[in-house]
Amino acid sequence: RGFKGNAGRCRRDHHKGATTRTVPQGSSVSSASELIRELSLRPLEGEGGMWAPIFNNGQGSAIYFLIESPDFSAWHRIPEQEMWVHVAGSPMLLYTVDEKENVSRAVLDNKGSHFQAIVPANRWMAAKPAEEWSLVICALTPAFSGMELATLREVEAWNVDSPYREEVRGLIHD
Q1: Which residues have a Cβ under 8 Å from the Cβ of 31 and sit 6 or more positions away?
Q2: What is the pTM of this model?
Q3: What is the torsional sign of CA 8, 93, 50, 53?
Q4: What is the pLDDT of residues 81-104, one digit of tens each?
Q5: Is the distance from CB of 84 to CB of 127 less than 8 angstroms?
Q6: How far apart are CA 143 and CA 128, in angstroms?
Q7: Residue 51 and which of 40, 44, 69, 98 are 20 to 30 A apart at CA?
Q8: 122 SS3 class
């Protein structure tokens, strides 16, 4: 699956609206396609993945966000702090770049103590499922206002002398 998106500034309205959808509990979740249907998820152009709004009250917003391999969430940053909470599926690999351009990776899952991560405002981030698919909730404060996608040139300039070197470069949509 390919998402065509332009690098640079773009606006997405995925944090607008509200829903009362709930994630099916326990063994009732058997596939990504089932969740896509149950939660009415739709493609997130530019970034990748599938999303549906949970709420937006002007002070904060949240979405369901599902990524099914081989898709991924491309490198992007937003002006708001964002919390990622793993809900279902395989672990989510969440990459971030700090102010010194060092890349780190958090592994989020719902089986241990690493089920959530907070990404500071204006921090570059990208994500992909460790295996077949992963569902997270992304919550922002204040509410979502816009997103910037990274260019390949920006990604290649980061200090990627880490075990994630090849993964980092692969998280850009054409």
Answers
A1: 133
A2: 0.82
A3: negative
A4: 999 999 999 999 999 998 888 889
A5: yes
A6: 23
A7: 98
A8: coil
